[in-house]
Amino acid sequence: MFIDVARIFVKGGKGGDGVVAWRREKYEPSGGPYGGDGGRGGSIILKADEGIRTLMDFRYKRLYNGGNGENGRSKKQFGKDGEDIILKVPVGTLVKDEESGKVIVDLKENGQKYVIARGGRGGRGNARFATATRQAPGFSEAGTKGEERNIVLELKLLADVGLIGFPNVGKSTILSIFSAARPKIANYHFTTLKPNLGVVFIGEEKSFVIADIPGLIEGASEGAGLGHDFLKHIERTRVLVHVLDASGSEGRDPIEDFYAINEELFNYNEKLKDKPQIIVANKMDIMEGEENIAKIKQEFEPQGIKVYPLSAVTNEGIDELKYGIWNLLQTIEIDYETFDEEYQEEAIKETEDSIIVRKENDKYIVEGSFIERLIYSTYFDDVDSLRFFQDNLRKKGVIDKLKELDIDEGESVFICGYEFEFFE
Length: 424
Hints:
Shape: elongated
Number of helices: 8
Structural class: alpha/beta
Keywords: Cytoplasm, GTP-binding, Hydrolase, Magnesium, Metal-binding, Nucleotide-binding
GO molecular function: GTP binding; GTPase activity; magnesium ion binding
CATH topology of the largest domain: Rossmann fold
Domain OBG-type G: 159-330
Oligomer: single chain
Binding site for Mg(2+): 172, 192
Distance between the termini: 66 Å
Helix content: 10-25%
Largest sheet: 6 strands, mixed
Strand content: 15-25%
Family: Belongs to the TRAFAC class OBG-HflX-like GTPase superfamily. OBG GTPase family.
């Protein structure tokens, strides 16, 4: 089965907490803080791999969590970092934010990596908070949470050449002759239910990738038949090879077929008009093929569209077509663009120091990732820890912001769900 869209949830691991510990060794009568830092949380990393062809692996598993960092240890030992999770995706995968639908990153190079959900930072142990005036800090710092998000993986094939046309015109047969690809071939419509890729070798260090796009029908751009699902794979191609049944064996006019398919392409996206096209007049070996080929050439070659007569059965004309495509590709710059996709601006992520101070329904509220971590790290029975908490509120401007909101002495302040009384 060909899976080209997948929705998954990714979450970086939480950073480990710093630890409160004391030095209690022989011949060390003064002791002192000895707690180590927590380990970093594991990240979720996407990696483009040309060995992966579909998004099938994401069909059944949709939740991915990075490993949590270990808490710090005594003797200033760091906790172990959480394990990163590397998710391999096909080359040509667009990664989108599910909520906005905007593209986060386009993974179109083999081996390309992107950290989609970063793991949290490890918290500091109490040994980190020792100063000349605070020689025995009885507190440590909590690790931060990892990033989390819902994303959509959408595959758009990377191919130099796209074979397009109505069903049963011979696209799959041409692909099998050109390359080592072995698509399913039969004499009925919609034999091809998924795009097939093949590599065409011209000579040493000379090759191109060709995709057999499933047969399009009228109304494809509106979702009829298989068209809507696979039109997007045409976007990435550099050249469109339009395969026509020159024999008219199914009672269709090949010239009308060309215009009908192009209408579907341009209805889907007008920018496809800019892609170079060549025509393959297939089935020239069948009666009336030669006569129709003359009409096809007369119609399209004045428009600058090269017509290649071909018999996929006898292989006549195959070499001319192969080298014709190669020569055309040499004139086109490689740019696997994606049409009409809106890219997400570099996200302004909530920083570790983010603090929100607001008044809502006559309640004073303080929240944010920094405050959440600070309150989680505070030992309210420890004088040094409480003083550290209060000093940070002042340094971060929380007290000043509350005063700007006209708070009075003794009024309640809700900090991450906990209620405190305000005193300067």
